[in-house]
Each structure stands twice: as C-alpha cells, then as structure tokens.
Amino acid sequence: LQTLPPAQLAHKYFELFPDQKDPLWQNPCDDKRHRDIWPKEKTCDRLPRFLVIGPQKTGTTALYLFLVMHPSILSNSPSPKTFEEVQFFNRNNYHRGIDWYMDFFPVPSNATTDLLFEKSASYFHSEEAPKRAASLVPKAKLITILIDPSDRAYSWYQHQRSHEDPAALRFSFYEVISAGPRAPPELRALQKRCLVPGWYASHIERWLLYFPPLQLLIIDGQQLRTDPATVMDDVQKFLGVSRHYNYSEALTFDSHKGLWCQLLEEGKTKCLGKSKGRKYPPMGPDSRAFLSSYYRDHNVELAKLLHRLGQPLPAWLRQELQKAR
Ligand code: A3P
C-alpha cells in the first residue's frame, strides 16, 4: 500500500474533489466521530440559537438593542474589524473556522434558557450564508426585517454618503439607481450594492431552501419603528424565551430623537447613536417613481411568498401592489 506525503495527498484529494475545497463547517457535537476528537474543555454551546440576518438599514440595530435588554438573550461580543458585526457566514471570516466564530460568544450560564444570537445585516442577501448557516446551526431561528425596498435603498445611500464613500458623494441618488451598463464601474458597483438587497423575495427564497419556514420570522420594519413593544412580544413568542420581558415598560418614545429608545433609571433614555435615524431630505419623486417600477416584480413575488407563508402583507407592500395595477 502506497501513499503520498500529507501535503501532496491533500493536493491530489482536492484535484479529485475540487468542490470540497470550500469548507462547510458542521456542529462538532452533532456527529459522534467529530465529538470524539473535539477537545473535552470545549463546548458546543457557544453557537447562536438565532440570527438577525438583515437586510441593512431596516432597523436591525434597533432590534439588536431591544433584544439585548432581555435578561435571557445574549449577543456576541463586537468584532473590531467589521463595524461590530461578526459577518461570519457571508465573508472570508468563514475560513477562519468555528473556533474563531465561537470565541465571539459567551459560555451561557444556562444552555437551555439562555439564547445566544448574532446580528449581521449583510447575511440577508449573501449567496453563501444560508447554506453555511444551515450546516453549522440548522436549528437556529432567523429574523429578518422588511421595509419598503425603495426607502431601504435611499437610507443605504445616505449611509454611504455619511461614511464618505467617494462614489456616493460624487453621484446623486437618482444617478446611482438609474445608472446604465455604460456607467463608470464604481457607479455600477455602488448601484448593485444599493439595489440588490431589496430583491426581498429572491433572498428569502434562498434562505428557505435551507431552513423550514417555521424557523423564519419576518418583521414589518415600519411596525418596529412605530410600535416596537408589540413587535418584541411577537419576537419573544417566536423565540420561545422562558421569561417574558415587558417591553412596553422598558421602552419609551424619545420625542427629541423621534424614535423609540430604552428607558433607563431616573427617566433617562438610551437611544441609538447619530448614525441611526439620520436626518436627510426626503427622496425625490423621480427616484421614488423609478424605484417603484424597478422593484415592482420583486414586490409582486414577495406578496406571493408572504401569501404562501400565511403572513400578512405590510402596509408599504399593499400600497406598492396598488400602484402596480
Ligand atoms: P435611517 O438612519 O435611514 O433613518 P440599521 O440599523 O439596520 O442600519 O437600520 C437603521 C434604520 O433603523 C434607521 O434608518 C432608522 O430609520 C431605523 N430605526 C427603526 N427604529 C429605530 C430606533 N428605535 N432607533 C433608531 N433607528 C431606528
């Protein structure tokens, strides 16, 4: 019996099975063979029980703030590199492996009742994230928030401007959304990043290839903004948390900020920073009309999908469908 030295053998192996070059991590405790070689001092409890998958600019940080107020809900520690989000399943961080990922999470004091979670808003539109997440945390619940994709695109553009993205500073919102195939590459790239996350139905369908519908909660972002306590009750029911937390007492409307915030002692409030709930001029009517038409088919597909899932249609979607008639 002959074999090659390890490095050459690996080379040969991946020549024969090129599709296995890309790893797909599984929970080491789910397979006896893996469990047997998994160090005793390690635990498999440092993995999220649910994921807030985005998309960006729909209120994901507000939801994050509200979730961590709950005594049984624990988040990961922030990542210094990626604006506090771990972004494991969507990016190259995935290749750092599960030890790297688990290190972001605390060891839960009670693995049954404590719910660990992670919010990375760009998981939503990622091609890879659903498959990878389903492989490592197949039982995880998923939460997504939807607002009118046109408003989402506009908020995202404003966000890029305030982060001084050169293309966003150079081109108007209308130029970004309406750029044609001959537009400069940086404008086309910005356009794609701005518009593609709003193809809600396609992205949700991709998650549903890997997760059963009962593991997915779709939140109406408008309701999260105006009536977060009711949304948080639904979230608690969906997550099956052991202790009910009363958000109507814990949240307060901050009239200065114009948004709901955490109520602290002595009537003080903790709101999100300046980067959330930004002040910017309303979207121009040309952009609004362009996007309404751009997202029409996607919104029709979303309505069909929500109908199939037995979920109510958010108000913005009903309005958009009326326009489409
Ligand atoms: P704008 O800053 O464009 O108004 P995300 O955290 O996913 O990036 O979303 C940011 C958006 O969350 C904000 O967009 C804001 O409209 C919305 N939002 C909803 N409820 C909020 C709250 N209670 N505090 C701050 N922002 C909230």
Detailed description of the structure:
The protein has 16 helices and eight strands. The protein has 325 residues and is α/β, with parallel strands linked by helices. It has a five-stranded parallel β-sheet with strand order 2-3-1-4-5. α15 (296-308) packs across α16 (315-324). The chain is globular. It binds adenosine-3'-5'-diphosphate. Adenosine-3'-5'-diphosphate binds at residues 56-62, 121, 155, 158, 224-225, 259-260, 272, 276-278.
Q: Oligomer, anyone? A: single chain
Strand percentage, roughly? 5-15%
Strand order, largest beta sheet: 2-3-1-4-5
Sheet having the most strands: 5 strands, parallel
- H/E topology pattern: HHEHEHEHEHHHHHEHHHEEEHHH
- Estimated structural class: alpha/beta
Mean of residue pLDDT values: 94
Low-pLDDT regions? none
Subcellular location: Golgi apparatus membrane
Family: Belongs to the sulfotransferase 1 family. NDST subfamily.
Protein name: [heparan sulfate]-glucosamine N-sulfotransferase
What's this model, at a glance?
Helices cover 43% and strands 11% of the residues. The protein has 325 residues and is an alpha/beta fold. 3'-phosphoadenylyl sulfate binds at residues 155, 260, 276-280.
List the helices and strands and how they pair.
Blueprint: H1 6-16, H2 32-37, E1 50-54, H3 60-68, E2 73-75, H4 98-102, E3 115-119, H5 129-136, E4 141-146, H6 149-162, H7 166-170, H8 173-178, H9 185-195, H10 200-208, E5 216-220, H11 221-226, H12 228-239, H13 247-250, E6 251-254, E7 259-263, E8 269-270, H14 285-294, H15 296-308, H16 315-324
Parallel strand pairs: 1-3, 1-4, 2-3, 4-5
Antiparallel strand pairs: 6-7, 7-8
Helix pairs in contact: 10-15, 15-16
